[in-house]
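Entry 14. Ran structure prediction on the chain below.
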Amino acid sequence: MRKLFVLILSLSIFAVSGAQEIGEQHLQEITISSSRWSERNELLPVKISHINFEDANQYNLQTAADLLGVSGEVFIQKSQYGGGSPMIRGFATNRLVYSVDGVRMNNAIFRSGNLQNVISLDPFAIGRTEVLFGPGAVSYGSDAIGGAMVFNTLQARLSGSNEKPLFYGSATVRTATASDELTGHIHFGVGFKRLAFLTSLTYSDYKDLKQGKYGPEEYIMPYVVIPEYCREGVSDCVTLNNDIRKQSPSGYSQLNFMQKVRYSVNDDWNIEYAFHLSGTSEYARYDRHQRMRNDLPRYAEWNYGPQKWMMNHIKVDNSNGNLLYDSLRLNIALQNFAESRISRDFNKPNRETQSEKVDAYSVNVDFRKALAHNMQLFYGAEYVQNNVRSTAFGTDVTTGETTKIASRYPKAEWYSAGIYSQFEWQLNNWVNIAAGVRYNHYIIDSDFSTVGYAVPFGNMQHSDKGSISGNIGVNWRPSNSWLVRANYARGFRAPNVDDMGKLFDSADGCVTVPNPQLEPEYADNIEAGVVKHFGRYLKMDITAYYTHLSNAIVCRNYTFAGSEYMQYGGEECRVQALQNAAVANVCGVQVSVESRFAKWFYAAAYANWQYGREELDNGDVSPSRHAAPFFGRAAVGFSNARLTAEIFTQFQAERKADDMPEEEKDKKEFYALDESGNVYSPGWMTLNARMSYRIMEGFYLNTTLENILDKRYRPYSCGISAPGRNFTLSLTYTL
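Output, structure tokens:
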């Protein structure tokens, strides 16, 4: 740990010492859209991180999850190579909001366990990413407790006043050694004065991922299961892993497509249609393949079926202004989600397949109105409807015979409607205030007659609740080089179909059953931050926060039909259910230092510390599962018009056995073991280098050498190790 602090401090001092060097570049004023409209970052009293298209391209990032992770301010968990579940300020999964071009991506089966939906987004098609830290319920509604991730995809561009058509685009080919990756991407656009088109296509193929050479032996899986079955029976085979660095099975492939059409009716009206399509191959959940039972593998097969996402999106912008608004934005979207789980026990003939489909309809209308030269009002309304369909069947792999089994969810409809208002007042040149309020109402209608098992309550269940959230904050600029901000925000999460209606095996020997009596959970957050500019070329940002989660939805022991145990998956399991049964508290500090000194050199460091505790059944407390250990990123580099070269490190502190969350202590397939045989998450730090070079006009060569020291490590809570020494090479042509 001492080395980590020394490294960050050294970079900071190095940056400060060069901050007074003569140069012409200033730290930029950033325009963000986390309030659903573009605003200057300094006007909002909350911490916001941003990543633009050019920076993301230079890092050779494989997925949108890796795009978030490279910020150094979002922790990424992976249960398998085809995954990526962000953790922000001690919260994750369905306590975070994903927004794509102003459309809510969260759906009614977003779960409390780790999610990989973010990889449906194509990093090559994302023009800008912003992370709004802390509750963002006023703008984004339910689930925005830990934060909101705002993805803005590439825009179709008009030629403007130019009579000639505007042509633009880029093409990239990329390979990486740790997974024998092969990726191809192309996007191309043409713009006329009033009409524009943009097409984007990406295909990636990843083989099994190789981990590092030096590290904990527990991360090595010494065997590989080869499924074998025919009409005569099942004879699954366990064979030695010939390459202990290879994590098999973990490979997968993915296809992303985006099409946009933009029409400018006149200078005041703009209409855009966007079509997004993403699909993966079937891929293994690697952490489940590491589970053992009676000294044999627990599973012969445990795969996610193809993960599919499609969105049709119409956006209308109007800026002609009238009594009600100066600007109007309307978003209408239809999304389709499809996912499945496929599992078969070792040497057992029955393969179980659970399939889920969600149709998500949404309408957002947002207004902006200047009430005076120093006052702005943002207001709007949202309607969301999710239709959930869930099926399940068992297949005898020896005969092909299928039978219906219990589905994961009931047939259900989830509705949400909300109205909000946000007011911003620039009192003078030094102080501005922002305050907002939102009312949200949700309804869940569930039909349990479709699940394939008897429930101890009526088949038709109806839930109908409302929630109020809000925020108030202030920015104070005592001088041009100082910014002090303080903010209070209240967020909420309405229970969804996954919370109320799920049946699944959460762990060996346990089964989670439906509980339709859930209430919303609420988060109260206070934060304070200081931004200091030293000279013209260095910025330091320190933010401290505290979040109290009440009425928290957590998994606890339960009874179902009067019994504490039930048969599930061929064994007797302890019954559990999600319940409003706890409180949780998270506090933390985020520190960032960014500098552009001399003429071509820069340095940056990001560090995140958080401390989370949640209540247990017996009244004791446990570390919060999604509060990551101390982590961050630091870099120093050189950049001019032709070449960018950077040395950077990413790191995570150790989480000792005594500080492991209760629900993580039995996951020996995830973690290393200490001298007492207890699981813990070792600390790690990687050394990496990258280079981006403009070969000639339009041609760029990007190379990255990750994990130079070839360390074998797993970020906290991950079920698969990170890549070992990995050389990535890409060639891009930009038109």
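The longest helix spans residues 2-17. Will compare against last week's run tomorrow.
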